TrEMBL record:
Belongs to the MQO family. Pathway: Carbohydrate metabolism; tricarboxylic acid cycle; oxaloacetate from (S)-malate (quinone route): step 1/1. Its EC number is 1.1.5.4. Its cofactor is FAD. It holds the Pfam family Mqo. GO terms for molecular function: L-malate dehydrogenase (quinone) activity. It catalyses: (S)-malate + a quinone = a quinol + oxaloacetate. Coiled coil: none annotated. It comes from Cellulomonas wangsupingiae. This is Probable malate:quinone oxidoreductase.
Length: 496
């Protein structure tokens, strides 16, 4: 996609749909690689980072597989598979490298507190789970990325690491915990705003209250994009002609890719899951817990519903959150429509949806139980991790909406809990579906997009990408990862 002379001011090289971390990351990368390209970003709401990238709509965990048990499944023979954990850790390190590069270059204004060093812990109870955690730790620490992870079954050590886990705990069942002191908490809202500010400073155009409603491929391979003005005094819809379109609209991506009528989206559907957290900002509680503590998910629960007690830093302020408590809604976005699910049904995805529904009765049962849970039940879940919790100290907040991927597969359809990049065969349009680990691996996902949609630029871009992310390519990976110091030097952590 070489720069060209445009017939009208409306023509752009790249059009990004959605003002979240994914579009911000792609805008940052392309703005660095091709500063002469015309880039437009369209966000349907009146500000960016208000949906999934909003810090209160996600857990803020820098997902590096340091504490998340769902990334290290147990094999039938009892051994633990750590391959996915290693891959996710490597992907997150790419994000850290890019953020460090941008911060060092002064390109993240106002985001000094966006990434905070926060230990990542896993906490389990019961003999069977203690043994599993031990095996997980032994398998992980054999890899250089996890070599410094700590493990203990001593309640006194756990209390020293995270006092609230053990305070007033009266049962005598076995407990165990692992700790990685180099984990992070991320304010993806602050990070998104900073990256988009940098992108607009470098020439990109950001339009808020601007909703993409239609995508039509032209004969010359470009896309005619219809955009509605959602302001109260907005004008008529306008059209923009783009050579490449990225749909980073969170739960709204499925609808837009379906409207684009690319064959690659056929068979895809979405399963929406919402969530809630208990939150406290009481200083006397928050100051006692400076870690992200993940546990084991309930039977039938999706990976995004793994319980965790999290220290948070949002806009420079500290808080503590516990959850998530899963819910269900037919909306694909927190500020979406109740008809979202129905409008996504197509003849090509009906069979996968029905197959997934029939084979995931345990998930449906879990969701019904969560939706109907009482305040007492929610408090009971919290006290399994913080026995001293009192209801007067906590408020219930609604988190963001997630849309899990349903696609064709064995038995008619499969439910995926990761993220999936869907791109047209000619590379002129791509979109991102799914949820976790999502924002944490935004850089790796967008690098995948560059490889798939811009292969003709691979050789030209590689030296610049390597400069921004030294470990990209693998040759220097182990050496670059030994110190885990990309954000720990204070450049981006703000001293936390």
């Amino acid at each position: 996609m070489a720069p060209r002379t445009h017939d009208t001011a409306a023509d752009v090289d790249v059009l990004l749909v959605g003002g979240g971390i994914m579009s911000a990351t792609l805008a940052s990368l392309l703005g660095s690689l091709e500063p002469d390209w015309r880039i437009e970003i369209h966000e349907r709401l009146d500000a960016v980072a208000l949906e999934s990238s909003n810090p209160w709509n996600n857990a803020g965990t820098g997902h590096a597989a340091l504490c998340e048990l769902n990334y290290t499944p147990q094999r039938p023979d009892g051994t633990v598979d750590v391959s996915k954990a290693v891959r996710i850790n490597e992907q997150y390190e790419l994000s850290r490298e890019l953020w460090h590069h941008l911060a060092a270059a002064g390109r993240l204004p106002g985001a000094a507190d966006a990434v905070s060093t926060t230990p990542h812990m896993t906490f389990v109870r019961g003999a069977a789970d203690v043994e599993f955690l031990r095996r997980r730790w032994e398998a992980l620490r054999a890899h250089p990325l996890f070599a410094e992870m700590e493990f203990t079954t001593d309640p006194a050590v756990i209390e020293r690491w995270a006092p609230l886990l053990m305070a007033q705990r009266t049962d005598d069942e076995p407990v165990a915990a692992t700790r990685a002191t180099w984990g992070t908490d991320v304010d993806f809202g602050s990070l998104t705003r900073a990256m988009l500010t940098d992108a607009t400073t470098r020439g990109a155009r950001l339009h808020t209250s601007s909703e993409v409603t239609r995508l039509k491929r032209l004969r010359d391979g470009r896309w005619r994009v219809t955009v509605a003005d959602r302001r109260w005094n907005g004008g008529p819809p306008r059209t923009v002609t783009a050579r490449f379109v990225f749909v980073g609209a969170g739960g709204g991506a499925l609808h837009l890719l379906q409207r684009a009528r690319i064959k690659e989206i056929r068979g895809y559907a979405g399963f929406p899951i919402s969530g809630q957290f208990l939150r406290t900002t009481r200083p006397e509680i928050v100051e006692q817990h400076r870690a992200k503590v993940y546990g084991k998910a309930a039977i039938g629960a999706p990976p995004m519903s793994v319980p965790h007690l999290d220290a948070r830093v949002v806009d420079g302020g500290r808080a503590l959150m516990f959850g998530p408590y899963a819910g269900w809604s037919m909306k694909f976005l927190k500020r979406g429509s109740w008809t979202d699910l129905l409008r996504s049904v197509r003849p090509g995805n009906l069979v996968p949806m029905l197959a997934v529904g029939l084979r995931n009765v345990d998930l449906l049962t879990y969701l019904v139980r969560e939706v109907t849970a009482s305040d007492t039940a929610r408090l009971r879940s919290l006290r399994a991790y913080m026995p001293s919790a009192h209801p007067r100290d906590w408020e219930l907040v609604t988190a963001g909406q997630r849309v899990q991927v349903i696609k064709r597969g064995k038995g008619g359809g499969v439910l995926e809990f990761g993220t999936e990049l869907v791109a047209s065969a000619d590379g002129s349009i791509a979109g991102l579906l799914g949820a976790s680990p999502g924002a944490s691996t935004a850089v790796a996902t967008m690098l995948d997009l560059l490889d798939r949609c811009f292969p003709e630029h691979a050789e030209t871009w590689r030296p610049r990408l390597h400069q921004m992310m030294p470990s990209l390519g693998g040759a220097e990976w182990d050496a670059a990862m030994e110190l885990h110091q990309l954000v720990d030097d204070g450049t981006l952590t703000g001293g936390h």
